[in-house]
Amino acid sequence: SAAAELVVPDKRQLQAEVLSWQRALDDLMARLIEKRRSQVEDALQRLDRGAPDTRTHRLRIDDLLRNAKTSLRSALALRWERVSGLERRMEALHPAQVLARGYAVVQRVDTGEVVSETSQVVKGSPLEVTIRDGWFNAEVTGASTPSSSLLKPAADKRNPPSEVLSGAGAARERGHAT
Predict the structure, then answer these.
(1) Alpha-carbon dihedral sign for residues 46, 49, 55, 60
(2) Would you say the pTM of this structure is higher than 0.70?
(3) CA distances from 140 to 62, 68, 96, 122, 144 (A)
(4) Distance (Å, rounded) from C-alpha 64 to C-alpha 2?
């Protein structure tokens, strides 16, 4: 009916209006996007003008890091060599190594005190002598303090003087007891 046509709009007319609104929105969005793009470009140009040259700084930082790594490696290598040298020195001074070189540890049997001076013993003092492969007992039969040298030259091991040490094997170590 005619009244219904007046109240209900024509489908084509509605489609045309929707299309018109869609075009208007598309135009508005395009203008907004263009405006924002322009603002972003302006901001980027301002940043480029005011920003430092990061490439140069980055190269400088890379050089500094490379130099620091080289310095650290050198310092570590020097310290490692020092530690290795100290370790070798400690190994050489280890009591077992000292004994292996022919020295002995002489102790008083009664106190366990290490004998390092003639004043610590008297004639008849029982001693325990530790050498590389074990120990043996000895007895002081005499003592002297040489004035010209700390160590006397080793005596003939087949015929050692009996006045310094006596006991099984004591003469064998005569020149090396400390």
Answers:
(1) negative
(2) no
(3) 74, 64, 25, 7, 11
(4) 89
Q: In 10 A of CB 104, how many CB atoms? A: 22
**171 contacts 162 by C-beta, under 8 angstroms:** yes
Segment 167-177, tens digit of pLDDT: 444 433 444 44
Q: How far is 170 from 136, CA to CA, in rounded Å?
A: 7
What is the model's pLDDT at position 166? 42
Let me know: does 148 contact 160? Beta carbons within 8 Å: no
Q: How far is CA 135 from CA 48, 53, 115, 131, 171, in A?
A: 86, 78, 15, 6, 13
Question: Burial code of 43-63, b = ≥16 C-beta within 10 A, e = fewer?
Answer: eeeeeeeeeeeeeeeeeeeee
Closest alpha carbon to 168 in 140, 142, 137, 127: 137
